[in-house]
Amino acid sequence: MSAETYDVAIVGGGPAGLSAAIELKRRGVAKVALFERGTELGGIPRHCGHPPFGMREFGRILTGQAYARRLAGAAVAAGVTILAKYTVVHTGPDGLLTVASPAGIQTIQAARILIATGAREATRAQLLVPGVRPLGVMNTAALQAFVYQEGRIPFRRPVIVGSELVSLSAILTCRSHGIRPVAMVETEHEVQARPAFFALPRVLGVPVMTGAQVLAIEGSPRVTSVRLRLADGKETVLDCDGLIFSGRFIPEAALAEASALALDLGTGGPVIDQHGRSSDPNIFVVGNMIHPIETAGYCWAEGRRVARLIAAELANARNAEPDKTPGRRIIAGAGLKYVVPQRLTLEGRGTVPALNIRAIGAARGRLILSDGSGTVLRTQSVNTAPQKSIRFSLAGLNLAVDSSDLQLRLEPRP
Amino acid sequence: MTAFGDLVDAVIIGAGVVGCAMARRFSVEGASVVVLERAPDILSGASKANSAILHTGFDAPPGSVELQCMQSGYDEYMQIRESFNLPILETGAMVAAWDDSEEGRLPELLDQALLNGVADARLLGRAEVLAREPALGTHVRAALLVPREIIIDPWSAPLAYAMQAKALGARFQFNAGLLSARFDGDLWHLETPSGTLAARSVINSAGIQGDSVERMLLGEAQFEIRPRKGQFVVFDKAAAKHLRTILLPVPTARTKGVVLTRTIFGNLLVGPTAEEQEERERPDVTRPELDMLIAKAVELVPALAQAQVTAVYAGLRPASEEKHYRVHCLPEKGYFCAGGIRSTGLTAALGIARHVHGLWAQSRTAGGERFAAPPTFPLPNLAEHLPRDWQTPGHDGIVCHCEMVTGREIEAALGSPLPPGDFGGLRRRTRCAMGRCQGFNCLARLASLTEGRLSVPIAPEVDP
Ligand SMILES: Cc1cc2nc3c(=O)[nH]c(=O)nc-3n(C[C@H](O)[C@H](O)[C@H](O)COP(=O)(O)OP(=O)(O)OC[C@H]3O[C@@H](n4cnc5c(N)ncnc54)[C@H](O)[C@@H]3O)c2cc1C
Ligand SMILES: Cc1cc2nc3c(=O)[nH]c(=O)nc-3n(C[C@H](O)[C@H](O)[C@H](O)COP(=O)(O)OP(=O)(O)OC[C@H]3O[C@@H](n4cnc5c(N)ncnc54)[C@H](O)[C@@H]3O)c2cc1C
Description:
The complex is a heterodimer of chains A (414) and B (464).
Chain A: E1 4-11, H1 15-26, E2 32-36, H2 55-58, H3 64-78, E3 81-84, E4 87-91, E5 96-101, E6 104-115, E7 119-121, E8 137-139, H4 140-149, E9 152-153, E10 158-161, H5 165-175, E11 183-186, H6 199-203, E12 208-210, E13 213-218, E14 225-229, E15 235-239, E16 242-245, E17 249-251, H7 254-258, E18 283-285, H8 296-316, E19 328-332, E20 336-340, E21 343-344, E22 355-359, E23 363-370, E24 376-384, E25 390-392, E26 406-412
Parallel strand pairs in A: 1-2, 1-6, 2-3, 6-18, 8-16, 10-11, 10-16, 11-12, 19-26
Antiparallel strand pairs in A: 4-5, 5-6, 7-17, 13-14, 14-15, 19-21, 20-22, 22-25, 23-24, 23-26
Helix pairs in contact in A: 1-3, 1-8, 4-5
Chain B: E1 8-13, H1 17-28, E2 33-36, E3 53-54, H2 65-80, E4 88-89, E5 93-97, H3 100-115, E6 122-125, H4 126-132, E7 142-146, E8 150-152, H5 156-167, E9 171-173, E10 180-183, E11 188-192, E12 195-204, H6 210-218, E13 228-235, E14 246-249, E15 259-262, E16 268-271, E17 275-276, H7 287-300, E18 309-317, E19 326-330, E20 335-339, H8 345-362, E21 398-400, E22 405-406, H9 407-414, H10 423-430, H11 443-449, E23 461-462
Parallel strand pairs in B: 1-2, 1-12, 2-9, 5-14, 12-20
Antiparallel strand pairs in B: 3-8, 4-8, 5-7, 6-7, 10-11, 11-12, 13-16, 13-17, 13-18, 15-16, 19-20, 21-22
The complex binds flavin-adenine dinucleotide (2 copies).
């Protein structure tokens, strides 16, 4: 059986994969295939019935569903070969993909592969939340699929665990469907998204409890209550009929793992260079898979940027080897959860975008970039909420002078 | 009150793995059977949460009913498994010693294994252990290898037993917990929330409620259930590459200890704990114990420090105040009990059923006719290492992406002769929502697909 061949095979039809596909076609790449395991394109936004999406892409604010439809329509119009209900089960080496669909299992050959499989929220199991295991415990995305896609109300009085931006989506989703959250519980001592946003739950009468631990989920067959230890050490029981675990995103890295790409412990996703290239020179990675989590607009822009690079590489050197320069590592040092990219390839094409950084907890102090000899190259002061991403510009630095590891660390303000 | 049809030979209380095996054995032997289960589905008690190891009995008490049932259960499983398409993963097990005193105990464990007829058990030196399992912590000293300890699908196996029983005429009543019982000197009259029935004999396989069911039937119980909780952590599939052999600790007097093993579904499992508790109906997970299990796993296989958790769960062993099985009977009352089937029931179930049926048959003069060739049928394969439905063309797409469960499989489970009664039952029959995302992607879709088809719906309310 001879493999079907494409110039670029994209895995995942969310904002990142779709924007890359559209851009590749715009740049004249002939054969672009997009494999999406779901029945429809759009990724997570396809079941977000709420705004804001699309500002950067379409200059207007759309609901996720409208946004997903527009992006999908643009991909079709651009001439992308769309393969929905196709799950990529393995990639590489040498641009080979194994895909499964209702038609069976196939092998695909592509000059370059772009993985854009997104991220998902941590489950109560991953968070090791104690208690029994009743019905009614789910992530925000599942809640949204219930109400926006399936027209179902899974509960009426849930407790929301988490305080990221997505936790606010959870509140809005609830409120627009007659679901009244009982409380928002955050295990850390401060809310994770920008504090200003937390006027919203307060306005809606949803108490926000920070520094509270879930001691037990109770109920059978459905949730009936949750037992908490509050910040002041007192225990309390909230009656509720559901729990929403929101945020604490984890990359959907199963495919990358199965394909033996090098992974970064900080992000949980593949190690990439500034062009989005993974440890396999034929495989690029974009979207929330490499930085859990950014907005759809951010992932869209990233998809476009990496697509340009792939298009240029294919155009310049049709039959040449992809760039295999090992590059310079960037290590996430003290106080930092991750730094993306984890590697800089110095003689590669394109400009170096700002580093995308996430601190462990809130970041208040100074970020310090140093080289292998410990020489400080640049510093930047920071003051951000815990789950907010930080940008660190490399503009103007001449990093090609040596190849020692770079290190970025956070020096907290005393 | 409604009566469930005619007088039956045997009413089996409880549809755990023991009850399912019992229903199969009695049906095959020609008895008319009703199974009463208080939950909406089979396998709702201890049988839904175990380590899924088919044990050889190498460390069971020599000469015990338990050992005999384990070994005959093991053999019968191997005989029938192909006709039901039931998988095995031939891993073998190693009882690993990590210090002097543990190493010193391996020879006596080997002696016991040999005494128990496990002739292929043998000792491995440190180098052999590490050659077999290079990811183990290097402080491992030696091990006892038991090649025939294997891993099975702990849910499809009992489902096959129950389905065969059903095909032979056994009736399963769910949401039908035994409420009260009366023996009129000849027949039993049993009351459940959904009706009454009359039976010539009663088989008690009520697991965690074995003693209370015995008390309900006889007025007093010969044994007392002392629930012993076992918690588990399931690691993501990527972790399974670190270990091939089941890793057992050197047992103590009280417990078999924490096991690290693959599952047949391609994950890695660590557990169980052994926690005595009064509470019988609340198998909760607790944070210190989950942390301890993860730390233990990392101590055994350091690479697991990076492994992600897929699921956590707990099961309650129906242990009693004594270590051995509580198998006994009162033939003159037609009462038979398979109680206290603590921690080896998955292995022993077919053997226990044979044993109890033997006691039952002795007490009777006449009986139904044995089925020489009872019907068999292949169950859908859920084992990761064997072909799955998604690999066969013509399915209507994948519903659960983590576990690669197709719409065709969901539909087949819902439409089967013994369909799931609740979401747990659907998960056990298909693996849906059992993977790393735990329903992030598929839960809502599953709520719609199962609409009106589970006695406990996932989310009944439709947006007005
Ligand atoms: C509940 C929720 C609310 C949100 N609200 C907002 C908001 O209001 N505004 C905003 O800007 N952002 C929002 N976000 C974030 C936004 O959804 C993400 O930034 C964006 O979807 C990321 O795009 P992506 O392409 O990286 O991944 P995704 O959108 O996750 O898409 C990944 C796609 O890959 C597919 N896939 C995965 N594995 C495979 C495989 N092996 N084979 C084939 N296909 C595969 C998946 O099915 C999916 O369609 C929200 C996120 C969530 C969870
Ligand atoms: C942590 C753990 C790990 C284990 N690991 C293994 C292993 O690796 N290998 C192995 O062989 N074994 C193992 N076991 C043991 C095995 O799981 C048990 O021995 C077995 O499940 C017991 O089955 P059962 O049918 O007796 O009990 P159960 O499965 O508990 O079934 C009893 C049933 O009776 C029902 N019931 C109760 N009261 C009533 C009533 N009044 N009316 C009607 N129905 C009622 C319950 O709802 C339940 O469904 C393990 C057990 C645990 C808990």
